[in-house]
Records
---
Amino acid sequence: LNLFNWNMGDRYNGDGQVVVVGYGTSKRLKASAARAGNAPVMQEMAMAPAPAAIADDARLADTAVGNKAGGEETPTGEKEPATPSIRKNFQETAFFFPDLRTDKDGNITFQFTVPEALTKWNFQGLAHTKDLAFGYTSASIVTQKVLMVQPNTPRFVREGDKMQFTAKVSNLSDSQLIGQAHLELLDATTMQPVDGWFQNIFPLQHFTAQAGQSAVLSFPIQIPHGFQSALIYRVTAQAGNFSDGEENALPVLTNRMLVTESLPLPVRGDGKHDFTFDKLLHSDSSQTIIQHGLTVEYTSNPAWYAVQALPYLMEFPYECAEQVFNRYYANALATHITNATPGLKNIFDKWKITDTAALESNLAKNEELKSVLLQQTPWVLEAKNEAQQKKNIALLFDLQRMQKERKSTLNKLTAQQLPDGAFPWFTGMWKDRFLTQYIVAGIGHLQQLTGEKDPAATAMAMKAIDYLDKELDADYYRLLKAKANMKEQQIDQMQIHYLYARSFFDKPVPAAMKKSFDFYYAQQQKYWAKQSRYAQGMIALSQFKKNDQVTPAAILKSLKENAMNSKEMGMYWKDVTSGYNWYQAPVETQSLLIEAFQVAGKDAAAVADMKTWLLKNKQTNNWRTTKATADACYAMLLQGDNWLAASPEVNIQLGATPVKPAAQEAGTGYFKEKIAEKAVKPEMGNISVTVSNSKGQPSWGAVYWQYFEDLDKITAAATPLVLEKELFKEVNGDKGPVLTKISEGNELKVGDKVKVRIVLRADRQMEYIHLKDMRAACFEPTNVISASKWQGGLSYYESTRDASTDFFFSYLPKGTYVFEYTMFVTHQGKFSNGISTAQCMYAPEFSAHSSGLNVKVTE
């Protein structure tokens, strides 16, 4: 600190106060250094200019000992009050370049502009020498005036709000001040007065402020409808020769909003399917609704979405064994699909040249139907990645490139295999038993699907099996050595996974290891009911290939009995949820069970039901891992009927109006048609969808109805997403906080604590959910820091904005979730509280919103 050498002593102010000098429109504000028992340090922090500089600065209106307005002198020698000074600069940081000046004694002074907010500031100073000796100082300063007017404005107001515009007049003098205050309202674009429009009928008020105390000003105003600009408020106060004023902008939000309501159209198989959009049917009952339009979209062959996911397998940038194998797997699978599906290349060419929207990310599609712009969400990068992935489809399905990539990746994989047959995760790391089994199973998948055996891949698998045989044998003898009870369960997921992977190959079991294999096969037969769904599927397949007819049949029967089944969602298992283990993966589990019902059960109906769930999962989720994508594509495209070969025909009728798409996307059959606002009729709420030639696969679409409505007149709407919002007044009672529900007729008071409760229900797993909770202008949230949060097993990001609180969920499992946060009531009047909306950004047809509500605040 000696480096600063700012020994002010008592030259400026003996009581520890320093004068902050401002430039331009800023005024001199008395800045009190917070001593906190550290006077010498504070005095060394010379923030004021030299006394001569103070005297010469004619632009400063006040002095260090007071802030008299200093009006013009009259012929009688008295001073008339000057026009109140108006503070306008409310920057949160006093930024300046350190223009330091030294005197003959080495004392340093500098000057800078302080923003005009009446507040407490933190000052920090750091200095260092050429040899890196340094000094640091900090201080707190308060900028204030003898007479201060401080408006208490909300963050925003809405059209139709009635409120008391309040301000505080503070008197820091040692005597009573009697004066008057004035409120002016102006249009920010024209700077013309709008007091009459805002019913500011009492713009001038008198006040009396005792010495060292404050007085409250209250101006009743009403926000008019149709005001399409920001509002400038200007509050001034004057008492004798003291004055102050503040001018700032106040956003005026519309009380009407564009509401997007959707009706999903889930269809499965051929036939006519009827839907009812109730709110559209009865839309003529509202006198304030203004139609904006109706949009119909439909995908007749969504199996192609699985094809669009394939390039992800070849794109992953890392050179670990698992992803090198999946690049090989993707190219081999793509080659087979190309040969098995005539006309495939023509569809890819259309996606690349004409139907370019097919290659957009689902996150980026239908932006006009989503409640939040993609640029304002945390998922911009995911959208870009998925879009690039889809654009690589044509590259993936180039036959010459596929042959080259297959050979290249197989060579890389061969080089990564260790001499004993095991694979490490990355070259140079230790052997990984599970990864080795995963690669063996993948090679078996390809051989089973294509009927072809690549000699290099087969040799690789055989070498890996030799290593894995020894590992299984070692497991058995470890049990014997530990004197384990061999009649109890001694098998786990690792041994089950290996027996499944080995079942794809005819390689005989070494005679010396037959006892080990027989033991684990017997363990599978006896203890399959205690295993995970994933393991049960593997056991059914490996036992079936061992000519065991009883165990697979029992497993498949049990799986059916425990499954959920619906016409829309197909067949799935409620207890299959995501976890930290490799076998706790819903997409991979569903894919493997499809294989079990196809190979071991020959159950075409069950396979179709399960493929339906897999497609419906793709509708609302992004298959984000190479393993999930590989397994899902394997099950989706090449088990049961070939849905890619289907050419479904779809006819949609809105009331008496048929939907005639101008064009349909190649492959997926996707189309989107818009109906202008003038053509929208309530009868269009009666919707019929007729499908033919679907081969039993599901298809889906949605009708989006968009309209303008007053916030307080909006009624709740739900899809598979359901959203409820309630407000509660929180009061501390004898036994703790007591919550009282706030309804339309209830009244609040300034200072009341209010709790927001939002209940979100989802009937299926979804990704990329945005929830926006609007709030009234009279509420101020207690939590203003945006942050990632964790609640009830759910991770999300909460962002507090001026007019709403936003929640972002990258992953939302099926279930019911409750979110709460608190606010305080800050203003008196009647306010529109808005609504809450939730929407799946990946599939915007899944959306919901709450009803509107007005809140009333009394004295």
---
Amino acid sequence: MPSTTSGSQPKLPNAASPASAEKISFPVTGMTCAACQAFLEKTLAKQPGVENASVNLMTHTASVSYRPTENSPEALVEAVRRTGYGADLPAADASVLEDQRAHDEQLRAEYLGVRRKALVSLAAGAVAMVASMPLMGEGHATGDPLLAWWMRVLDPAVRSAAPRLYAVDAVVLSYCLFVLTGAIMLWAGRRFYTKAWAALRNKSADMNTLVALGTGAAFVFSAIATVAPEFFRSHGLHPDVYYEAVIFIIALVLVGNTLESRAKGQTAAALQKLVELQPKLARVVRDGSEVEVPAEQLRVGEVVRVRPGERIAADGLVVNGASAVDEAMLTGESVPVEKSAGSRVIGATVNKTGSFDFRVTAVGGSSTLAQIVRLLRDAQASKAPIQRLADRISGVFVPVVVAIAVITFLAWWLLAPEATVVRAAAAAVTVLIIACPCAMGLAVPTAVMVATGRAAGAGILIKGGEALERLGSVDTLVLDKTGTITQGKPAVTDVIVTSPRWTESELLRVVAPVERLSEHALAEAVVRYAEELGIEREQAESFEARPGLGATGVSAGHAVTIGNRALLADWSISTSAVEPDAARLAAEGKTPLFVAIDGELAGVMAVADIVRPTSSQAIGDMRDRGVRVVMLTGDNAETARAIARQVGIEDVVAGVLPEGKLAEIQRLKADGHVVAMVGDGINDAPALAAADSGIAMASGVDVAMDAAGVTLMRSDLNALTTAIRLSRATMRIMRQNLFWAFIYNVIGIPIAAGALYPTFGILLSPVLASAAMALSSVSVVSNSLRLRHVRLS
């Protein structure tokens, strides 16, 4: 037997006073690593009047809370531009869909630009590699055994294919490489140096600092060897040049940026697909004829005609016609939904069979599609709590790496037996290059982006990384009854006819016209049931509502009385013949409606808020996963226990007002539970906000969805089990990403510094270090993309 308690009812907390700060979000371009993100956050946080600043590496957006009396959006954007990164304010009159399209186009243009520079740099690097081979004379020591071996293997082939190259004076070759490398640095690598300089001016450092220091040191070393080779020879050193390494480092870093950018586009695919769903044209009905207009020019109140196979251009209400509409993009449910006059339709959903006209009720930023895009974009731009560790490390990472590079240089300079300066410079540059914290910065936001996009495709809107992370750690699930476990509207469940004069359909044909004139929810259930059975609509000849009792009237020449037993007692009509049935129905949580026709008992009907077909399965799944399930309802204890028995819930808290629901959530949290609350009504909003994870049913009211971190777009608790599975899978991916990002640097930096050289003769080259750095970032993004294929059912 489920345990039932009554909730206490303390006072609700006072609402917080309105905040004076305003919030703005704008796109930022040019970021390539976690240190870039940390640097920009620090820069924005220093601006006057800024209360909070958050920059997201994956979505390339900055979100700033600021006091408008002390700062402005234009000034904040300019502060970002001064650091060498790109930033623009969204167009004031642009809808969220137009804004997202512009942002996507901007990122694509950046991707194409980086790809072009990467390809040209790779080609230049190959030329530089071949041109450098004749410069490898006797006694040449690159400090890079692996690269030297590679060049020795290729040298015979190059010597055979281009013998004239070896006849060119070494000085001429060096100066040609000097010019080629300088051109690549100024064109393809310019971004690294301008941003590194901007970071230095702001007393900070980021990935660009590492690349600029590494390639800059190698270039200066090579330039001195080119201009003053005798200086090296006088100190017993070969005047080695590293021009090919400089070009390849720039090329491979750009290749990594290109691959990251492409992979980021894949993680944001769900958002891009949503934006693309918006149809371009709509057929507006004016003066009886159709006029095609751009969808963005639609106005509230206009009537739009939709034909089979077309996407609906805006939100609205059907005024005539009927059809079935595929709402999978909104709910994740593949079965089309029947629509007729008065039905609500959603923009971007697909009309399947019939044709209909609808009146526009929402356009632009207020449309359902725009709200989903805005919510998903905000979610993908948010940070999960697990990212705080990566952010703290990224904030100090670059200075630590620079210090390690200096120590590495000094150690090689002082301890290496030969070519000390050459080996010291190569090792220091390699440390600077391999330690780029790109993978660390991508570890969490890539997973958040893929997971929220995957969830949106399943009809689940998750408001951000924090909501996503909390959902996976829930151990107690609190469910509202009405509209959550049940369908939220009463329906006729049983019809028991006691008089041989009537059949079920004949009884409903007489009773329904009387109930149609009533405004009571139970009467509406009787009318819906009659319509579902195909009983024709007829008019009652008279009607009288009896508040608290039921209704009476005349229909088809018969006197009808329908209501509770007290109403029939007023008319001296005995209900004893159906009392056993009525008692059984009441015990099942149903409301019995006694029916008398022409002064004689004709039967009893049961009306109940019936359980959703999937509730029992979803609740059982939660229990199997070790999650405690509690029903929390304002309904009476008897009805609550009956519903709880049907779905297998043992813990029931009934008869509570909104403040009682809030108190129960607070009590569970105080006992150490991680609590998720699912509800759909205004009375659920305080509890949803107080829970560790608030989950709203989209069939509910807006205030409930505003208070919740997760919204289930289809009325199905199985979507909740899907969301929890996705959350737990996402947390696994995040931990894997962070582990590999940290381990990569823990292992890579010592090897780059030369830890293996004394024992094994292994010294990593700057070129291979840049390739490893690029691949580490791509591996993290690729691991996150696995979430697109994780089994959720």
---
Amino acid sequence: MRNSKCEIAEAIPNCHFAFRISSWGELMNETWRDLRYGLRTLIKSPGFTAIAVLVLAAGIGANTAIFSVVNGVLLRPLPFKDPDKLVMIRDLQPPLDETPMDYDEFRDWRQQGQLFEEVSGFFNASYTLTGSGEPEELKCVRASANLFPMLGVAPALGRAFLPDEELATSEPVAMISSGLWQRIFAGRSDCIGETLKLSDRVYTVVGVLPSTFRGALPGNLQAVGAPDVWIPLRLRAPPSGLHFLTVLARLQPGLDIRNAGPEIEAASARIQQERSTNHTVKLVKPRDYITGAARPALLILLGAVCFVLLIACANVASLLMARTAGRRKEIAIRLALGASRWRLVRQMLTESLLLGSLGSLAGLLIASWGVDLLVFTGRTIIPRVDEIKIDASVLAFTLGISLLSGVLFGLAPALQCIRADLQATLKEGARGAITFERHRLRSLLVIAEVGLSLVLLVGAGLLIRSFERVVAQDKGFDPSRLLTADLSLSQSKYEKIEQQSLFIQQTLERVRAIPGVEASGAISNIPLGGGGTNGDIGIEGKTFPPDSAAVAEKRIASAGYFETARIRLIAGRYFTERDVPGTPQVAIINEALARTFFPGEDPIGKRIDFRWDTTGLQEIVGVVADVKHYALDTPVLPEVYVPFAQRPSRGTTIVIRSRIDPASLVGVVRQQIFELDKGQAVSNVRTMEQIVSESVASRRLSMSLLAGFAVVALLLASMGLYGTLSYSVAQRTQEIGIRSAMGAQPGDIFKLVVGHGMKLTLAGIGFGLVGSLALTKLLATFLFGVSASDPVTYAGVAVLLLGITLLACYVPARRASKVDPIVALRYE
């Protein structure tokens, strides 16, 4: 008996295993049958399938494209060793916000070994490449020798910098980018040890960086694009107080940016005491610094495309409900033959998942085009743009949203199968009346579509109005017919300030002699160029507490610059050709500085200390209008200008006003400078109107994308309303015939259908207005001169939506008004 029981006990698990195999196999067989049946059903309705797939492709494609950007910019870690241990050390210099460091501070923090494994600094520079054809301006970075080992970036060829090569007395060496290696050395592996002549100094190439490293570092690096050349710091006593170094550090094991605060404060206090300064520091994650400005815009755009996808799902759900209603006889027969309701639900969900899969395939095609377009248009706007691509994580995201979409738009039609009244359906004719529940659900879907599209339209409208306000801002200068060109003078050839001043003076004279040129000048940082140098200034007779020092933007301008740029003179005079070395040192200030430091006073004749390679005080001889140097939507900072002849600079921008199209002068301007110095490169030749356009490019891109998504949402909502009304008219043909037979006029029928459509639209507008008031607050940081509850925008969008939906109602209403009562009464 024991053996018999043991045999039974041993057999039971095997029986369960066989049952599981049988159930799993049967499930797979049923799933395969569902897929084949679903495919046949979709193929039999090519029009319905094509429309549903296109609608889904629009929603899924937009989501995939924007997620590709979010993934590349925000989610993907920086391509360095242990990126979470990297921090930026930013200087806090009251009353300014965080700034780069000066060289003395960099050396102090480099000695804090208890906090950091490594501390490295770098800054942008530009050098002229000569000896290989026409002079070419290269983007360069001067960095401390430990930068690449700290980042974990190994050269593709050669070696990285040695510690001694960072010293000013070392031999000049360079590492070059993969792109420059291909362009100059044709990708030869024996280029190590060869030389490059940069700004009249010979540098030995010691390494080639890998093609995967594009210089995606924080700080001011992303503003200039991928560098061509990297050279060691090799600094000879840079001026104290000049904040130009971006500092990266790697935290010691056990420390992270969240718990390093007390140690940082203690080290900062020690340095403050040793150097008698009030500067503190702040640790910033490099990725946050690189992507900080782009993060809110990208998340808002991702939310917008989610709305588009929801509208698309509602549209397809409405189509599927109409299609399911037409198949109710088939469903009733299958139920009568013994099919379970949940079996039919599974069949319906299988068909919707098939639609979602087809939509995702078409959406991937749309997304690939969209990503290429976004990368092309956002090349100079979007950080980490080279890392945006459709990869495995993006494909997984697309698969996920296609499955989620299939469930979302397939659930409502599938639930109709469960609630179907078998006997009533079998008794009714082929075209029985649609149930109230179906009417209500389809109406709710339309209301949701209209509401969501209104939210997107309001957001787009607010951004459009903000963009108009930004562009209409007073720039402080006249950008029309202005041409700009950057010059970077060789340090060895133009070492003395007299040589720098003479070259710029001769260049301006040659340019002014060109036919069609009205005026010319030079400036260290052009308006809206984004660059600038700020620092402490002294004001004679005024003292400031340590935490509120007098700080201003510092710029160097030639005689004729203000007249060329048409910057208004508020008081005093402009610089003249008489403001040269040996004459009294002078300065011009802007209105912001006059308001800040000379309130209620006449600043003309007062004296200030520029404190940047100048000696003594400068007399204020003029006040000019505020000029937008950083962005059109940011406040103007106090600014001081000193004359180029009294304080020359090797880096400057020539500004030329012409009577003709400035773009036609590019060739002749280059020729005049080449004749003056055959080794002088001319770079970044642009019109000022291009610069103005580029300064608002980020706003324009965000506005255009959100507006595009809003238009797609509006079209989908209109299609949903049109489809609902058309289906309603088809289902109510008999009722319409009875109304007509009892004396209703075509106009009455027309009003009936339009009224139904308008009720749905007004309900959707009400729902959308409530949602907009809540959600558009997220746009507040992007708005300029416009409130998030701007009544003009809300009213305009509501009127637009009513007009579009009225057009969507017109065709179904006209069709209903032309129903023949005799034919309608025979309608089954």
---
Amino acid sequence: MTDGSSATLLDRSADIQASERTLLFTDIEGSTALLERLGPSYSDVLLRHHELMRQAISRGGGTEVETAGDAFFVVFPDATSALLAAVHAQSLLQSEPWVSGASVWVRMGIHHGPTKVVNGQFVGIDVHRAARICSCGNGGQIVLSREAAETVNEASLPASVGLRKLGRHRLKDLRYPETLFDVVASDLEQILKPVRSLNNRPTNLALNQPDLLGRAIEIAEVQRRLEDPTRRLVTLTGTGGVGKSSLARKVGAEAIESFTDGVYFFELSSITDPNLVLPTVAKTIGVRDFPGRPILVDIAAAVGTEHQLFILDTFEHLMDARGDIGKLIEACPHLHMIITSRSGLKLSTETILDVAPLEVPAETATRTELLENPSAVLFATRVKDLLPDFAVDETNARTIALICRRLEGIPLAIELAAARVRLIGVDSLLDRLSAVLKLLKGGGGGTEDRHRTLRAAIQWSDDLLSPSERSVFRLVSVFNGGFRFDDAEVMLMDLLDELDPDIDLLTEVESLVDNGLLLSTSIGGEPRLKMLDMVREYASAAHAAEADPTQVNDLHLAHFTKIAETCASMALNAGQRPHVGRLENDIDNIRAALSWALEIRDLRSVSRIFYALHWYWISQAQFTEALSWLDKAVGLAEALGEDDEATALINEAACSLRMGSGDYAGGEPFGDKAVKIFQALGDKAGEMRASLTQCICATVVGKIEDPSEILMGAIEMFRGTDDYHAALGLILLGEGARMEGVLDAAEGCYTDAMTLLEASENVFWPGHLKQNIAHFRLKDGDWQSAAALLADAFDLAEDFDFPLVSNLAVAGFGGVAIARGDAEMAARILGAVEHNLQKIGVVFEPTDQADVDRYVSETKSALGEETFA
């Protein structure tokens, strides 16, 4: 079954215009277990399943796109046809008298959205979403996305068929929660099991991790150590390429049933700053920074006493963060960790397991012995992936055994070598490897010698590249954390033309993928490429040794500066999903670009990236990372001492970040400096922009008594030319009126702001403003209008992932409940909000908290303290 990445990854042919289509994915639940139980009879079951599915698809007017094993991918012209076809298919499947008494339960997922066709393959994030929606269902269930449900013509459905809302669910690899529905039909089995979402099985790991050859003992040992409550940190050490990450992933996937509160994998290889370890953890598990206190406190509050497993992969270059790891384990009594590193962390709770290479065969191993040896099986499997006719036999057994022994059983080295068999054969492979390893090995044995072996294998593979392949190999090592092919194409094409006009980037990249030096992967259905850590380390060092890397680093900086500016500008808008997704997919590249700009003291580029990202950081509550970059950006500006536009932009963004984090006193000097620089430059718009936040900070700290004149001046200047900043001025003016109790004036400001925001499709502020106005309606006694406003605010917050606004809206529903006279419901709602705030580590602003405190007080009065508790 395709998940949206089955099309040729690097295809540059023109896309067909994206069209709205309804996609149906299906597969048999528990097909592997069914195969094991039925044996040869399974083929008859599968054949009959295919016949019934095709009968329903044909009757419904669907087009079969792909069939793989027990899975179907079908396209329909509309959601109603897809739904009726799915219902008919389930009816046929559930009424079928299956052979051998089998029970065949098929899960189905339907989604409606834009897709493209490239070389006959359907591609796009919506294909990926449809596949994920199918995989979250249970056998016998038909699950629909909101988009599919909303486009179903219910008037065309039989009276016996209806839709049931399942609520919002987070699905693997999809950043935003999906609102899901399922089908209720009188003649179908009613499926009451919850869907398989991250809501009820919290993990970001793929559950179907591949089997690991020769690692049964290590898997069992890690599992045994995780069961020891006094040793809750297991560090997997060993040379690069030995398989520490794969081992950790496998153990994590098998531990999901044991760690019922969550198993999370954190890939740290592309992070260079130890201060970003905890923000990465927080972001992955859904914890937002609480302004003004260490993020460690927020994570500890969220994890609490829950039974969770964290897997921190590739930690050796981040040892300055090990103190935080120790504190986090100490603060969370049931939190366990697996860390992969080339060395231990030296923490009191740590137990170290050194991951050795795979067992190698004897030189005289027979074919039968090779087929039971993990190194040889890995080698043969990878060769067979490229040469389907390849087989281990008595004529090549000794050669394969010697290759595995030369590579000391290091999985990455074996895979790199296997990729070359298609070109040179196993005999030539052994001869070339032996020559290279003889020159490069130190002969001392142990970890350092294995490291040299792996490096020799990478260098040997590099030596076999053509000059054009080698050039591309070195240049693409500039990407951090992976990249899209079109980024490499846009960024490097002119440089490659200078090197050699005949270089075809697509051809060279495909060759690097074939030879194992680049990996083809995807994030959320988006095709990407990446290098393994050791390979990238080698390629980057080789490039630096052979040429000045400044040119390619500058190209990388320019390219990702544009991406940051383009995507971050949409972070608060209704069309944010692809843009925020792009920022998050390439955040490691953006961090690398910003680090390079700081290193070469390019203040203009620093200011462009920093200013572009500051509202993205605020809306996503990523204050720890944002304030870390703030210190570096401001430090460079102060060191250069230039009062130019770049310095003004950095200070303007710094003021907003400090204000957003609740540090008004810290933000005011930055705002003041930005205003003065913009004044000196004659930039009136910049001056008024900076004045918006500076005057609020100055008012809070007592430097300005009444900011209304400044705010009204900004509103007048921006209205009609910059609606967003005009709206921001109105919001700030309204907050001041609300604080003074002048609610009519506050509501007028909020309403005017929402009108301006609607034109710019901003979705961040309307959620705040609607729930603010809802409190005013509750004070008026109009709980019906308040409830409608709160529902709108909640939907905005959930659709665009603003958890603080979600909780504000829910707290408002507590006020609605007490206004309706349902004090018990109010207590439950307000208690849930309190629990959520403690879990995500945030508090409400004083004006919002005052309203919540009023609802709590009224509820306690109605119920009494004991019943309320």
